[in-house]
Amino acid sequence: MRNDSRLSRMLHVLIHMDRHQHSATSEMIAKMLNTNPVVVRRTMAGLRERGYVRSEKGHGGGWTLVRPLWEITLLDVYNALGEPHLFAIGPADDQPKCLVEQAVNSVLQDAMKEAEALLLRRLGGVTLEEIAADFEAKLTARWATSYPCAS
């Protein structure tokens, strides 16, 4: 099963959008993500509906960030993307009358609910500003390492 990377990709896009003065067209974002502009528009639509971005048509149009990064959590973006599946594993349903399968599924479902609740709490506790700050720190460290005489 292929990983659903929409959350990671949209976090990436939103942080880039925050760093640039101008709007980003669907074509520009698609090129950055190596995908189709239609996929970008469809994915960004959920973010627009939640009030995180807006889009303008025509010459000079594109996508712009509406809210500051410190107001947007990973959970906000996850919800705007339609709450994609968090895990690739799940219960079997080959033999629903089998008592062993029922027992296994019960334990797995409990564990998955617990893991999902923990992950969602964590996503709700991290803002995009925190990720952007980590990026800035890494960029500064790389720059200092590349140009040791500059300090």
Automatic annotation (TrEMBL):
A GO term from the CC aspect: cytosol
Pfam families, alphabetized: Rrf2
Origin: domain of life: Bacteria
GO molecular function: DNA-binding transcription factor activity
Record PROSITE patterns: HTH_RRF2_2
InterPro entries: Tscrpt_reg_Rrf2, WH-like_DNA-bd_sf, WH_DNA-bd_sf
UniProt cross-references to SUPFAM superfamilies, sorted A to Z: Winged helix' DNA-binding domain (SSF46785)
Alphabetical list of PANTHER family matching this protein: HTH-TYPE TRANSCRIPTIONAL REGULATOR YWGB-RELATED, WINGED HELIX-TURN-HELIX TRANSCRIPTIONAL REGULATOR, RRF2 FAMILY
Protein name: Rrf2 family protein
